[in-house]
Structure formats: structure tokens, C-alpha cells
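Hey,

The postdoc asked me to send both predictions to you directly instead of through the lab channel. I've kept everything plain text so nothing gets mangled by the mail client. Protein one:
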Amino acid sequence: MARRRQSVIEDVLDAAAKLPWWLGVLLAIGTYFVFRWLAVPEPATPGSVRPPSAVVGSSIARALALAGQFLMPLVFLGGAAISAFQGAKRKRVVDLMKREPEWDGESPQPAASEQTLNPGLDLYSEWKEAGLGGYEPEAVDTSRWSLELLKALEWKRFEYVCAGYFEELGFRAKTVRAGPDGGVDIHLYTEGAEHPGIIVQCKAWKSRKVGVNLIRELFGVMSADKVQEGIFATTGTYSSDATQFAIGKNIHLINGEDILTKLQALPPHRQQSLLKFATEGDFMTPTCPSCGIKMAFRAPKAGGNPFWGCRNYPRCKTILQVSKGQ
């Protein structure tokens, strides 16, 4: 079925919606006064006789101007309203972050070192004896986007940055909330769509390579949910078998360098908006996958490996163990 051709009014509305909202308001005011001036009848000149065609043409022009002085300002105001709505929508990621939403990704990775998720592991005896000292986050330049900064982001903040980036591209991004994510962290919707067109899995891994098993899992979800396109985003890299498996399956593998390039390709003010969100508050301490709150770094006094533990312990037993040699 052929797509319906838009009217001139619809074209103007679309163009106005892409402008800053305040510019749409100024255009609405300006067009009102321009069309009002055009609608004023020309003063009659004594002794002059105008041909009928000129009289008819002038009357039609004034009638169009009379209608235009109200219609066109309304169109520009409508475009300004759409622009303001879309601007507020782009800020939704930041608002969600401030409310500490509850959602998680599998095997989340804090920036300080590579971690292994151990839900349900009982470390109560170690927890009682563990102190809070010993964790000092590495200094990182937050004035610009860099691979170092991307790898410093804790797992939840990284997922929200990815969601924010896709919203900058015009998608509606919906993140998965608390509980097992089933191989998906973000659902991407086109305008007006009820079913996601793309699903995204994120891994904030500092040095580990994403293996083929996780790519197979994403492909399985795509097939089960009848989604045609998948994206896997990581701050690290991929194994050769993972890269080979993704070929021909409409799965896009994005590594840390790719993400950095994409962020730097955004308009400067969009880059800064996401950068401000990414580095707002504590962006390095990992979030508990089950409770959605910042975790506590624990160093057992009797020796052993330090770990991140949920502050709701023992009610929540989710921990992140710090790997050796990181």
C-alpha cells in the first residue's frame, strides 16, 4: 500500500517539530503579524480603475491571508509543543536514574574491576567481620567522552547511557526492570509501535571478552519474541567465535571503541547532555541487581577476597566478588 502524501500543513508541522520549541513560538508570532499585514485591504486610489481579474486576485489573497494569520501560528505552536515534548522525553533517562529504578542485567560489572555475580551466596559470617575501607575509585576525566570513562561506568549507568543514546536517535527505549532479564536489557520501539523492533543486551565489562554463549542467548530471544534485529553493546570486546556466530543473523556487535565513536558523532549539545547524565553523582559504585540500590564494598578482616554486597543484607544476598589481579 502506497504511503499517503503529506499536505503542506503537515510538512510545515514536521519541520517546526524539529526546531527548538522557542523558535517555533517566535515563528508563530511572526507569521501572525505578517499574514495580518497581508490581509489589510489596499487603500483605494481616486480615479483609478482596477481590472476585474486584479480585484478577484486581491480578494482571494486577502482571504487566504485572513485564514493564514490564525492557521499558520497554530501550526508553528503545534510544532513547538511537539518539540518541547520530545525534549522532555530525551531527559527521561536522567529522571529515571534519579529515581533509582529497579532493573538488572546478567553478570553486572562495576568499573573498579571485573566481577562475578553470585546471587544467593551466603557470606553472612564474612559480612559481619568485613570493614568498609579499602575501595578508592580511580580518577577519570569526566569533561569529555573517552574509552576510559566508558569503562569506568558501573553496569546500570552504562545501560542507561546506551538507552539514552538510542533515544537520541529517535527510538523509545524501555529498560528491563528487576529480576532476570532473559538476555535483554533494553527494548527499542519506533514511533507509535507497540512491539519492539530491536532488542539490546549490554555488558559493562572492563577487560573480559563477550563469548559466543551470550550472543546465542540474544539470538534465541530474538527468535522467541519475533524481533528482527538485535544489538549487543559492551565496553570491552568480543571473542572470535562470538563475532563469527553473529554473521548473517542481523545481530550488531558494538564494542567500547564503537560506542565511543557513536557518542562522539552526536551533535555537541547531545554529547554533553549524555555526558552530564553519565557522570552525575556516583557513577562508579555498582548497583544491586535485585534491589536497585548502591552496594557496599567489603574487605574481610580475616583475609580473603573483597566483594561488593547489597546494603539490604541479609534480606538480599546478592554479591559481586572482585576478581583477583584486577
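Protein two:
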Amino acid sequence: MATILRMPEVLANATEAVVSTWTIAEGTAFSTGDTIAEVETEKALVDLPAEQDGILGRILAKPGETTEVGAPIAVLIANGETDADIDAALGAIAGGAPQKVSVPEPEPVAEVLAVAEVLEAPPTTGRIFVSPIARVRAREKGIDLAVLVGSGPGGRIVRADVEAAGTAPSLPAGSDVAASVRADVGEPGAGYTAIPHTGMRKAIARRLTESKSTVPHFYLTTDCRVDALLELRAQANATSQTKISVNDFVVKAVAAAFTDVPDANVTWTDTHLRRWDAVDISVAVATEGGLLTPVIRDVGAKSLSQVSRSIANAVEKARAGRLRQEELEGGSFSVTNLGMYGTTEFSAILNPPQSGILAVGAAKPQPVVVDGELRVATVMRCTLSVDHRAVDGALAAQWLAAFTARVENPISILI
């Protein structure tokens, strides 16, 4: 029997996603567990596996098209079935008949968002009939639904109507909504360019707002003398095929500090602390679309050159948009480095549910006092942001002291 493949809820609370690539062509057979397509979320790619044997009968969602969660993206068929069976399955959807779904059913709200756009014809009353996703989009854009003409069945307002709607000119004069939209549009001739938010930018904004408003941050700062580290790095790069960066040393020093202070390698949950056995560290990567934080697994068990290659590979995949969702998940700690831009000091926002993030500044010569004498040393200032629910001040200070000691004695990072 021909079945409908729907866009799965690949991330919690996601309302839409994009089929990046169909990994098999129409008419191709597949087995249970085979990857049928790659689905692009706000930040990563997710494999879409087959839940049963079958044939990809017809592709409904073209690569690159945004599709709502729960919406049909393909029709799957069995041996011997034809276009007539495909058409029948699609007709069953339009007619409201029950159908078999080949992916885990999305949450009921997501299902409503997917089906109500196209298939429900509203009854003829004086009400304004709007699909749920169109109502959400209208609220986000500040658009008065009363002035829109729906293009859906029976005049229902669907998402496309909201997206195509004008801003201030289409709103009733004097309305609060009109005033707010006009304020956003700006006066005629105002010198700015409106850049629509990408899905990634929205995700970053949502997560950082959540972090800053719900997680109690506190901050500790240390000055690390890195002359010995820079000398050791130069010696390593003179003979090694893998070019080691200062940030590679920093990431290894973070892992070593957790070996020294294992009680700090924790994350908070509402019922318990999770103390992690391995040290998985997220490394912040700036991309054109925004900040990504791929996770380097079990840093403590890797050599410095292995860590360097892992970070380089993660950076390359992040900037090419090829990170998998599992490469962004997990980890108890992050490292973000703006030293290459000349930034001396900054504080970073925690990446939930992680309990710490280290902000690394530029290494610069400055006067220091050593054994009562004034000298010049290369100093790198690092600021630790901590989730106070998981880690108390004294424990965080112990960890930061251990990190500083490892950086200032870099041979200990390699042992």
C-alpha cells in the first residue's frame, strides 16, 4: 500500500525544516534503516532513515524548500504499485481518509500546522479562518488578519497569504498594529537595510535569551602567562605536519583542568547533577549564518595533534554547513576564542545545558611582577562564565587555577 512520508519533528518544538538532499532517486528501492534524505534544521543536517522496506515512489518536497513539520514530503510504495496507487494515497489525504505515516507521528500541534494549511475547508460563518502557522506568522510580523484575503479552501488564510502581505499600507490607519509596523518600517528615506532573520539566527537568539534569563551566571577572570606555551607551540610546529594553534592548547588545558578538578565537570538538571566521566568540549565556530558549537568528544583521551585535527575538521564542516545534529549535541563545557581579532577580554553567555564557557582573549605583552621584580610577559586573559546552580564559586576558582597552572606549564598538557 502506498504510504505518505511526512516531515518529521527532527528537533523538539521545530515547526519546519528543509529537505537538503534526497539520497536516493524516485523509483529506487530501500531497506529499513537506509537514509532516504538529509533534512536541514536551523543548525545542522539530520539523516532521515526508512522505517520499513519500500520504494521511493514520488518526491513531493524539492531540495531547498521549507516544509512544515508533518507535511507530506514523499510517497513510498511497495513492489508492483504504480502512479495510480500514489495518486490514490494523495487523494486519501485530500479527502480526509486515514493514511499510514512512515515516520514517527509529530506532536498533535505540529500535525495541525501541517494539515490545516491545505486540507481543511472552513465552514461558512462570519469568523476569520486561519491556519495555526499563519496565525503565528501574522503575530510575529504584526499583520492584522482582518485585512487579508485567504487563498486557502473556503477563503482560509494560510501562511503564504501572511508572507505575501504588505506591511503598513495594508493595515487600518490608526490601529495599534499599524503603528507598530510603521515604526519597524521606519520613515521614508530612512537609511537602513532590513535583513530578514535566518532560521539559525532565530535559534541563536532564542537559546541565548533563554540562557541569560534563566541561568544564574557568574564570572571569574584569570591572566595566563603564555610565553612557555608559545615557545612549545613553535617547537611542535617546526616538526609536526599538523599545525597546532594556541586554541588547541587551550582546549587540551581545559580537559586537563577537569582531570585535576573532576567535581567541576557537571551539568544541572531539575532533579540531579550529572557528573561526566569524559570531557566533551564544544568549540565556538563563527560562520556566515551565525555561531555554531560542534562538540569535540573525549578531549582528555586525545593527543594534542588529534585534538587539533578534530577541531579543524569541525570548523571546516561548520562553515560548509555539513555538521550533523549529533555533532552539536552534548558536552559540558565550551571554549570561545576572540583573541585572533585582538580582543583582550570578554564574557560569554552559557550554552545550555552546559555549566561553563571559557572566553579566551588575545595574548599580548604586558608588565608583570615575578619574584618581586617587574618584567614583561605575554599574557592571555581568560574569563570563565559559570552556571551557579551546578558549580559554586570556590569550585569554579579551583578549576580556573588548575587551568591557569596547565597553561603556564604547557608540558603538563602533553603528559
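Summary for protein two, as requested: The chain is about 30% helix and 25% strand.

Thanks,
C.
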